[in-house]
What does this fold into?
Amino acid sequence: LNDRAEVGRILSALGDPREDVNCNVPLTLPVTAGEFIMGGNKYDDEKPPHRVTLSTYRIGKYPVTNAQYRRFVEDDGYTEKWKGCWTDAGWKWREENPVQHPEDWNDTTWNFDNHPVVGVSWYEAVAYCNWLTQTDKPGRTFRLPTEAEWEKAARGTDGREYPWEGEFDAAKANTSESDINRTTAVGLFPRGASPSGALDMAGNVWEWCNSIGYYQYQETGPEQDGSDSLEGTDPRAVRGGSWNNNQVGARCANRDRNNPNNRNNNIGFRVAESVCRAARNATRHHT
It folds into this structure.
């Protein structure tokens, strides 16, 4: 696995030949409308397992890479030019902190072009998505996924524990069991693909979600339908586990939360894309 990780770093230095990685705009995949099982019984904050119905949306095939995020940095994304892409709380945080790029942006441990960007706060992730919406083709709306959208893209409709079928397998995800101890090139574990075709949904980096990070599921679910406001300073959900978490953290139903100003080298994000702005409601019932 460490040899595989080194190959990923070499690919970054040579120029990653994978067209779906070496692209300016993150590739998104369709997740069809319908019902899936959300949650689990292992921990209280996952309970109860319940059925959620979502409209069609799209999910990033990979976490956003350093190369993709660099376009935002180099387009003065942290300046007044793109102030409108930041939430009010996010811009206030940026003004109070002299940040011009992610944490550890110039550290060669983390800044390989084909690795997921890390050291980004939730505020920065939201600003990037809004910037991408404004600079890409008209009509496309990029954003962070809700918890429900993230989980459905990760586990599909059969209630599986990991993105792949069956038990945990260290050869299918960059977790602490892999003993790589850092991020890896996105898509380096193709056998760990989820039913939607998304990769790195277990391990590599925790991923910011739009949803407020509730300790338990709510009876009516803003964490599912995307109705959580982007404003405010509430903790936000992170999903998927990372390179320094074990297999428990990489479970599809596992939940965690972080303050929106946190910038850690094990947190990144992937984009979601609205197919229809009106199609973002969800229903639920216990199973």
